[in-house]
Amino acid sequence: MFTATSEYALRALVQLARQPQGESVLGKDLAERAQIPANYLSKILWSLRNAGYLETTRGQGGGYRLAKDPERITLIEIVRLFEGVTAEPGCLLGEQHECSDKTPCSAHAAWKKVKEAYLHFIRSTTLADIGEPDSSGKIKVARKRATEVSKRKR
Length: 154
Prior knowledge:
- The protein is mainly alpha-helical.
- About 50% of the residues lie in helices and about 5% in strands.
- Helix 4 (about 75-85) crosses helix 5 (about 110-125).
- It is elongated, with a radius of gyration of 18 Å.
């Protein structure tokens, strides 16, 4: 559901979130770890730095590092940076009229559920949630979602 640019940005940021706090990574090393073409990544990193998500340092020990705590960076922030208003999907069929509960397209009911789940995920998930697996090898976000569901059932 993401553009290649948004996906690459998220992959690079997750790699940076895995670094010990304050430690920098060279752009070429980050490109290799995140499996992103280096030239493409340099443009993405420039945008992330200008938006305040990254800090850069030159010289020995220089490179890129997160400027914010990964627990404070949601996926929607990054996706919006690269995709703008299209980060939040509209009508699945691209209907000309305002697709809503009052004037639905033929896919509206089913798409609405998928869209709401997707938006909830990217609005509530942080880089820290997807950055590191827990001791069982499962990504933290899966554990977080299970906790949220069990709280709602109570």
